[in-house]
Amino acid sequence: MVFLRIGLALLATGVLLLPAATSTADIAHRKFGQVEDGKLPAGTRVDLTAAELNAWASDEARIWVPGATRNIHLDLRTGEATGTILIDFAKLQKAATGQDPGWLMRNLFSGERPVTVKARFESSNRRARVDVERVEVSGVPIEGATLNFLIEEWLKPTFPDVKVNQWFDLGFRINRFTVSPGGVSIYVGR
Fold first, then answer.
1. Any residues with CB less than 8 A from the CB of 171 and at least 6 apart, and which?
2. Tens digit of pLDDT for each residue in 66-85?
3. What predicted TM-score, i.e. pTM, was given to this entire model?
4. What is the spatial distance between Cα 182 and Cα 180, in angstroms, rounded to a whole number?
5. Cβ-proximal residues to 189 (8 Å cutoff; 6+ apart), any chain
6. For the segment 96-137, what is each residue's pLDDT rounded down to a tens digit?
7. DSSP letters spanning 12-46
8. Which stretches of the chain are DSSP H helices?
């Protein structure tokens, strides 16, 4: 769910004239709410800064998978992002599915592990694609066939709504988005 939420954060973000908020995460939540409302005029560009995105991702992780993650940081580049996070996979599975982890998960993946995920983003004509290029868990790279196996056999069954390495509809009248070092811009259509 964390990776899905981070991906969604990158897809549905923006800057508008907003009333004062109490935190950077609050500002980001308000921006998401405005996008999700569907009331923005066609042609509106909505920007979210890297700082807002990072604060929002951390806040969402606390809500959706309490105690399973911490120290989330997104490093944005043109068309891509690299996220770093500490994850307790056993707690993550419990928070996501409500089921206690099995013996393998408990014994091999309990405790915090540093995780790095690098992904590329594309979008146009109300569709987007998030391609996960590389994952590192505790410094061990996972790429190619092994990464595809983990996505298909663990990520998608654990988080059935996740859309990775395939095109999907954006929703919320979002026409397209761009990722840059300063943040993410979304462009609202009709």
1. none
2. 888 999 999 999 999 999 99
3. 0.79
4. 5
5. 42, 126, 173, 174, 175
6. 788 887 887 777 777 899 999 999 999 999 999 999 999 999
7. S---------SSHHHHHHHHHHHHHHT-SPTT-EE
8. 2-11, 24-37, 50-64, 89-97, 103-109, 144-150, 156-158
Encoded tokens for 9: 């954060």
Q: Which amino acid is at 148?
A: N
Q: What tokens does 76 get?
A: 């944005």
Residue with the two structure tokens 């996979």: 89
* Ramachandran quadrant class, 127 (left: phi over 0; alpha: psi -120 to 50; beta: rest): beta
Residue at token pair 């761009």: 178
- CB burial of 41-58 (b: ≥16 within 10 Å; e: otherwise) equals eeebebbbbbebbbbbbb
Average pLDDT estimate for 169-181 = 95
The residue type of 161 is: D
